[in-house]
Structures are given as structure tokens and as C-alpha cells.
Amino acid sequence: MTARILDGRATSAAMLDRVREEVAEFSREHGRVPVLATVLVGDDPASHTYVRMKANRCAKVGMESRRVELDAGISTETLVKTIRELSADPAVDGILLQHPVPGHIDERAAFEAIDPAKDVDGVTRTSFARMAFDEGGFASATPGGIMALLDAYEIPLSGKHAVVVGRSPILGKPVGMLLLARDATVTYCHSRTRDLAEHVARADIVVAAVGRPELIRGEWIKPGAVVVDAGYADNRGDVEYEAAAERASFITPVPGGVGPMTIATLLAQTVRAAREGTEK
């Protein structure tokens, strides 16, 4: 068996085409375009690259990107104040705080300064709760992108056993809740899980979201399973790709799988935030 590729580039391109149409419609109706504010603290090269990519995508769909750069030595209080000012600005529809922030900053306090109505990256406690209770909150962008990718390939989720390896508050935990909401049976695994290989081997769907290169070995994959690798391109992903592809039915490449879906989901949720903001 050779796995079929879950092509995030092609799927995200289709999503962004729809976003472009929604932006144009919003502009015709309201005389302005949706605005995404990105907050970047410090000079981490990878973070600058990600923010630049997001700004480029905004431009391609006709959306405005407002970039706020702050010195790495700022305090939590200053960052929180900046984010609260953006939250109060009626010209801003969505807010993204680029992760990670410098270690001395209380990242959770900064996230919580984002107005949930503008939390298009789905990082606040309120967004997580609304998402978990199916009350219309914004999904964390990467988990939301994963679900959109699975849906694009019409992968059935109801009744399936999904194993999520990773428990971060903006990736592992929310993707498990989204799968649960779609009637999958979800097992969370993490660094303290015993017999990880046995858990993975029973999974119909594996979501690798732990950030450790090739932690998930190819021989662990159940024949016919769906493998979603949310690892990073610069560390080759969390899954031993070639070996896993010989056993899986579908698999995401790294890069080109989950990453493009994250940005597309972020922009789609920004348009939604803009639309919902005008309805208040």
C-alpha cells in the first residue's frame, strides 16, 4: 500500500479562492476590507518568516495586514496593553500574536488580552471553550486547518479511533476536541505515555503534534490508517514519512500538508470575524 497525499497546498489554494471572493463581497458591502493585525515580539527569524508569509497571503486575497513589531525586551504588561488597544480598535477585525514570545513574557496573559471576537487564531480560553461546546468560537488555526483538510478528502471520522500525540493548548488539545465533536473516539498521548507504539498501532487516524523529529515510526502505523503530521518542516516532521507512507491510506507531507492549511484557516476566520463584527 502506498498512501495518497493529503495535499495542503492545493486544498488551501481552493480555500483562499473562496476567501478572496468573500473579501471582495465584504468590501462591496462595507466599503473596506477585513484587517488582520499581527503582533511580533523580538527578532526570531522563523517568526519573521511566518508573519511575512501571512502578510503575503493577506495581500493575495485582498485583505489588509497590519504588522506590529515590538522589542524582545518588552514586559508582559506592555504587550498586554498593545493587544488590548488592538482589541478595542474597530478597524481591526482579527488579531494574531506570533508564537512563541520571549521566555520572560507570560504568553497566556498576552493571549487572554485578545478580544475573543477577534481571536482568529483560536488561542484564548474563551475560544477553546466555545469550540469544545460547539458554540461558534474560532478554532485554533492549525487544528481547524487539519479538519478542513480531512473534510476536503472526504475522510470519514465518525466511529473512528483517533490518536493525538501531543497536548499543547493550541494544537494537540483542540484538535482532539474537534475530532471528538465529529464522533471520533479520541486518545491523547504525550511525553509520559507508556507504550506509545501500541496506542498508535490501534489508531485509524494519527495526528502527530509533538514537535519531535520522526518520533512516530512507520512500522507503528496501522495498515490503512490516516496520518496527519503537524510537525515542522525544519525538523522533518514528527512522522517517519517514507515508512509510514507504505502503510497508511492517506498522509500529509512536511512541508506542504498542514502548514498551508493553517494560514488559509486564519484568513477564513478573519473574514468571518469581520462579517460577525458588522452584525453586532
CATH topology of the largest domain: Rossmann fold
Backbone shape? globular
The secondary-structure class comes to: alpha/beta
- Residue share in helix: 40-55%
Kindly report the oligomeric state of this protein: single chain
Q: Provide the residue-averaged pLDDT.
A: 95
Unreliable spans? none
In CATH terms, the superfamily of the largest domain is NAD(P)-binding Rossmann-like Domain
Tally of alpha and pi helices: 10
What Rg do the Cα atoms give? 19 Å
Biggest sheet details = 6 strands, parallel
CATH architecture of the largest domain: 3-Layer(aba) Sandwich
Into which percentage range does the β-strand content fall?
A: 5-15%
List the helices and strands in order.
EHEHEHEHHHEHEHEEHEH
Q: First CA to last CA: what distance?
A: 52 Å
